[in-house]
Design goal:
Blueprint: H1 3-10, E1 14-18, H2 20-27, H3 37-51, E2 55-59, H4 60-70, H5 72-78, H6 86-92, H7 95-111, E3 116-122, H8 124-135, H9 145-159, E4 168-172, H10 182-186, H11 189-197, E5 201-205, H12 212-216, E6 220-223, E7 232-235, E8 252-256, H13 263-273
Parallel strand pairs: 1-8, 2-3, 3-4, 4-5, 5-6, 6-7, 7-8
């Protein structure tokens, strides 16, 4: 059990903030410097100093998207074959990308040693669809269970580079898919095994309702709706930041601060969450 679960199981109030967009708008003219290790760490450290999230998140999907945009040869390689898993396997095999992401994670670990540091990435199923679109000009693809199972092996191998960098792993499902059984979570077993080996807490971030069997198959979940135990993070609605909604009553809450939120209200709203 890692740093995040220790806090959740204690029953202490836990607020996980997704604040990069807001911090970039406030501190960096709306730009997140994904490709500059020093500038990205500085932005996140400044945001953390101001907002004090209980979890510091490093989101890999937008970092990878920025890398692909800056390296058209990689995008071309990802699209050179039509197999469902080929674009993702090609992306995650890019040694320069891997080195960059690990450097960022290690820098965040050194800069913010007191906070729980989490890698946030698409689930293997979701990442297959995203990578396929990135390599094939936005095209969609049907992802089957066998594809998700195979992709989890690629993702697990990729994650080994972060062995000493992070405390937790959050896999985000696509908006059009919510696992309905422990068997569907088990398709990600290779990733879960890596997390267990490195003593990371591992969870799922869902857009739909959490099934009890799904919650029991993973360390923590993040989802809208009522919480079912200490380890389910409940999503704070976006309208909360404009004063039009209330925060859910739960000890573990996940809140994305809109980029256009008014600074004069954000700190007051954060105080109410805590």
């Amino acid at each position: 059990m890692g740093k995040l679960l220790d806090k959740l199981d204690s029953g202490a109030t836990t607020v996980w903030l997704d604040h990069l967009g807001y911090a970039a708008a406030l501190l960096s003219r709306g730009v997140v410097p994904w490709l500059s290790t020093a500038e990205f760490i500085s932005l996140l450290a400044r945001a953390q100093g101001l907002l004090k999230s209980d979890v510091v998140a490093f989101p890999l999907a937008p970092a990878c998207a920025a890398w692909i945009e800056a390296n058209p040869g990689l995008s071309a390689a990802m699209g050179s074959k039509s197999r469902v898993g080929f674009p993702l396997k090609t992306l995650l095999s890019d040694e320069a990308l891997r080195a960059h992401l690990v450097e960022v994670a290690n820098g965040l670990r050194a800069s913010m040693a007191g906070a729980a540091l989490a890698l946030v990435l698409p689930s293997p199923r979701a990442w297959l669809g995203t990578a396929y679109a990135q390599g094939h000009g936005g095209a969609t693809v049907d992802v089957e269970d066998d594809d998700a199972d195979s992709a989890s092996v690629y993702v697990a191998d990729f994650l080994r580079g972060f062995a000493n960098s992070v405390d937790a792993l959050s896999m985000q499902e696509a908006a059009d898919f919510t696992p309905q059984s422990a068997d569907q979570v088990a398709l990600y077993q290779a990733v879960i095994n890596v997390a267990r080996n490195y003593r990371w807490d591992v969870g799922l971030h869902l857009q739909g309702t959490v099934d009890a069997a799904v919650a029991g198959a993973i360390d923590f979940t993040i989802a809208p709706g009522a919480a079912h135990g200490k380890r389910q993070g409940v999503v704070v609605p976006a309208e909360y930041w404009s004063g039009k909604g209330s925060a859910p009553a739960a000890p573990f809450r996940y809140a994305a601060i809109p980029a256009d939120a008014k600074p004069e209200t954000v700190l007051d709203k954060l105080a109410a969450l805590r």
